[in-house]
Design a protein that fits this description.
The complex is a heterodimer. Chain A is mainly alpha-helical. Chain A has one domain. Helices cover about 70% and strands about 5% of the residues of chain A. Chain A has a two-stranded antiparallel sheet with strand order 1-2. The longest helix of chain A is centred in the last third of the chain and has 36 residues. In chain A, about 35% of the residues are buried. Chain B has a domain of about 110 residues. A four-stranded mixed β-sheet of chain B has the order 2-1-3-4. In chain B, helix 1 packs antiparallel against helix 5 and helix 2 packs parallel to helix 4. The longest helix of chain B is centred in the first third of the chain and has 137 residues. The chains are: A mainly alpha, B alpha+beta. At the A-B interface, strand 2, helix 1, helix 2, helix 3 and helix 4 of A face helix 1 of B.
Chain lengths: ~250, ~260
């Protein structure tokens, strides 16, 4: 039994490898992009909207609301990154019920890549928001001796992100395979249903944690919270944010 | 090895591509559509609020107009009531005046009828009294009433006051001696002679008397010379009776009208 999809290689061109992880990732990407494109071709801003548009609006609104609640900030800066994380992981895990499909999130390479993206996004958003000095100053609080602990914390939580998602998805797939050989009736189905639920929860956890990490590094929390409480639904304009930060 | 670093790198690239794709095809159009919808809803709400305010203003204006109309109606009603009352009083006044007029006319007609009745009654009474008297005279004295009347008349001529006598004589002279003697009955020739003699004695000259009988006249005798008249009849007696009867009728009418 394969514990990782990376070893399932279809083509190899020198160092370039086309394995199952990449292939299924492309599949999910194609599906998400195609559906988005098909729906956004005929968007309506009136009261009558299609069911697909309604579904996408619910998803996008839900993600924005979650980001707003967690970060206490205007969500649109984080939406493309956090929303894509959530949608990619959720759809990857959701398609697990399709026979022959293996979720790319069951590969540690994928989860490591996603966690690495989060790891990189934290300083990028932080510097963009607070400037280099402001962001780096965060590592020296409350004391300069906290620097190693901050660095360890950054690395360990990134590893935890990757391993948590990988472990949950991979264990679900493995457990399904094992149960299929022990008790071929009923149990695998129940377990797979449970695995679908766990997959959605993991997507949610991954996105929530990524939001927390990015928001905590990029925003002075108290300022952001006050600002969002003062105007919880309206978009915060960039010049206002700059003024607040100054 | 659980981690294939090429795959990790490829997945990072894949993920960044997916972020760009979804940003292009999902987030931006969906958010724009939602924002556009919110803007439209906000515009509609603003429009609705504007319409509501306009409707409220219109409503207030209509209410004010209705109140004005009601006030005007009350005013007109009060004025109409006043006019009706004035008209009623006017009509009542006219009615009273008409009633008074009618009553006056009715009273006048009543008085006229009463007068006619009394005239008729007097005539009848006179006739009756004359008839009764005539019969009584005839029964009691055995003489004709006319005979007795003539006697009385001759007596009056004899006893005529000086002023009246002079006036009669002057009138007879002016009339050229023509004297008209009217009686209610046909006077016998002997009587005519006595009358003529008595008148000639009175006047002291020759007279040409003319005798007429008028059944309509009251019983008695009347001598007319020009504008002067000497008469005696039962009317003189009956005058008192007639006045007493008139007074009695007037008293009776007054009680009935009251």
């Amino acid at each position: 039994m394969e514990i990782t999809l990376d070893s399932l290689v279809f083509r190899r061109y020198g160092p370039v490898v086309l394995n199952a992880t990449i292939l299924y990732t492309w599949l999910v990407m194609a599906l998400l992009t195609l559906v988005s494109w098909l729906v956004s071709r005929r968007l309506s801003s009136g009261p009558e909207i299609s069911r697909a548009q309604n579904l996408l609006e619910v998803v996008v609104s839900g993600v924005r609301d979650q980001i707003r609640q967690i970060s206490q900030e205007a969500p649109d800066r984080y939406l493309p990154f956090i929303g894509t994380l959530y949608l990619f992981i959720a759809v990857s895990n959701l398609l697990a019920f399709v026979p022959g499909y293996h979720p790319p999130t069951g590969s540690l390479s994928t989860t490591a890549a996603l966690a690495g993206c989060v790891f990189m996004a934290v300083p990028l958003y932080g510097i963009a928001q607070r400037g280099l000095g402001g962001f780096l100053g965060h590592y020296f609080r409350p004391s300069v001796f906290m620097l190693p602990f901050h660095i360890i914390s950054e690395i360990s939580r990134t590893l935890a992100l990757a391993v948590r998602l990988f472990g949950n998805v991979m264990s679900g797939v493995l457990l399904g395979g094992i149960l299929l050989s022990i008790a071929p009736l009923f149990f695998p189905i129940i377990l797979q249903a449970l695995e679908l639920l766990i997959g959605q929860i993991q997507a949610f956890i991954f996105a929530v944690l990524a939001t927390l990490y990015i928001a905590s590094a990029s925003q002075a929390h108290e300022e952001g919270r006050q600002r969002v409480l003062a105007d919880s639904t309206e978009e915060i304009k960039p010049n206002q944010q700059e003024g607040m930060n100054a | 090895m659980l981690v294939d670093w090429f795959t990790v790198a490829a997945q990072v690239v894949n993920f960044l591509i997916l972020v760009a794709l979804l940003k292009r095809f999902l987030y931006r159009p969906i958010i724009e559509a939602m924002d556009a919808r919110e803007a439209r809803i906000a515009a509609r709400l603003a429009e609705a609020e504007k319409n509501r305010k306009a409707a409220e203003t219109e409503h207030a204006a209509v209410l004010q107009e209705r109140r004005d109309l009601e006030d005007r109606r009350q005013e007109l009603l009060a004025q109409a009531e006043k006019e009706v009352e004035a008209h009623k009083q006017d009509l009542i006044g006219k009615l009273h005046r008409e009633i008074e007029d009618l009553r006056a006319r009715w009273n006048a007609a009543l008085a006229r009828e009463r007068d006619l009745f009394f005239q008729d009654l007097r005539r009848r009474l006179v006739a009756q009294v004359a008839a009764v008297s005539r019969r009584a005279f005839r029964d009691l004295a055995g003489l004709d009433l006319e005979q007795r009347l003539l006697e009385v008349f001759l007596q009056r001529l004899t006893n005529l006051e000086a002023a009246a006598r002079i006036e009669f004589v002057d009138a007879a002279k002016e009339a050229g001696g023509n004297v008209l003697i009217t009686t209610a009955f046909e006077m016998p020739a002997a009587m005519q002679t006595r009358i003529t003699q008595a008148l000639q004695e009175l006047a002291g000259e020759t007279l040409t008397p003319r005798f007429e009988s008028n059944p309509e006249a009251a019983s008695g005798i009347e001598v007319k010379a020009g504008g002067c008249k000497i008469a005696w009849s039962l009317d003189n007696f009956l005058q008192g009776l007639e006045e007493a009867l008139a007074a009695a009728f007037a008293e009776s009418d007054g009680r009935r009208l009251a």
